[in-house]
Design goal:
mainly alpha; 211 residues
C-alpha cells in the first residue's frame, strides 16, 4: 500500500481524540517500514541514477536490501513489541503496533517487490499474486482493495475526530485515494503498453530467492 494509506489505517486503529502525543507516535511509526525506501530514493537522486538503474539494479543491491528487510521485519517489530509490553512502555508498544499493521497490509499486496518480512530468521519472501500498484499482477484488484480499506479507515477517523481541520484532511485523503484509483483503472492498460509490458517478471532477482 502507499505510505499515506498506511498512515490513515494505522491512525484508524490506534489514534484517539485528545491524545496528540499518542497520535504523533502512530503517524511517525507508520512511516518506519518505508523509511529505508525514502533514504534509498533520495540517495538515487543525489547519485543521478536513471529510473531503470534505480529500480532494476541498485534497489536489489546492498545495503538497501538489508535496510529494507530490517525496516519491514515482523520478527524485529514483534521483538521490540514484546520488550515494550514487558517494560510497560506504552508509546513504544503503540508504535510497534502501527509498524505491524503496516507490515500486515503490505504482505498480501506486494508481488515482484515483496519484502523479506521474516528477516533475519530467513530471506524468504511471499510473492503475492496481487499487487497494490502493478497492472501485471492483478493491480486493479490490489488498488481496489487498498482504496476500500482507506475509505473505511477515513470514515472511522471522520466519526472519531470532530475538529474541522481533521475532518477536512481526512476527506481530502479519501477523495484523493478514490481519484488515484479511478486514474489507475483508466490508464493501467496504457501504462503497460507504453512500457512494453506483457507479463509479470516475478522471482527474477537473485536477492529474492530464499536462503
Amino acid at each position: 500500500m502507499n505510505t499515506v494509506a498506511h498512515i490513515i489505517v494505522a491512525s484508524a486503529v490506534f489514534a484517539k481524540r485528545e491524545a496528540p502525543k499518542r497520535n504523533w507516535v502512530v503517524l511517525l511509526a507508520a512511516l518506519i517500514p518505508d523509511f529505508s525506501m525514502f533514504i534509498f530514493f533520495a540517495w538515487s537522486r543525489l547519485m543521478g541514477w536513471s529510473g531503470a538503474e534505480t529500480w532494476d539494479v541498485r534497489y536489489w543491491t546492498e545495503p538497501w536490501q538489508t535496510l529494507g528487510a530490517a525496516s519491514n521485519s515482523f520478527v524485529l517489530a514483534g521483538g521490540v513489541l514484546a520488550i515494550a509490553i514487558w517494560r510497560k512502555w506504552t508509546l513504544v508498544a503503540i508504535a510497534c503496533g502501527a509498524v505491524l499493521v503496516h507490515l500486515a497490509l503490505d504482505l498480501p499486496l506486494h508481488a515482484d517487490d515483496a519484502h523479506r518480512h521474516f528477516w533475519p530468521l530467513t530471506d524468504w519472501r511471499f510473492f503475492s499474486p496481487i499487487s497494490y500498484w502493478d497492472p501485471r499482477a492483478n493491480g486493479l484488484i490490489g488498488a481496489g482493495i487498498e482504496t476500500g480499506i482507506v475509505v473505511i479507515a477515513c470514515a472511522a477517523l471522520w466519526s472519531r475526530f470532530r475538529a474541522s481541520w481533521a475532518r477536512g484532511l481526512v476527506a481530502v485523503i479519501a477523495v484523493a485515494q478514490v481519484l488515484l484509483f479511478t486514474a489507475f483503472v483508466a490508464f493501467s492498460d496504457r501504462i503497460c503498453q507504453g512500457a512494453g509490458i506483457e507479463a509479470p517478471h516475478y522471482h527474477e532477482h537473485p536477492s529474492s530467492q530464499p536462503s
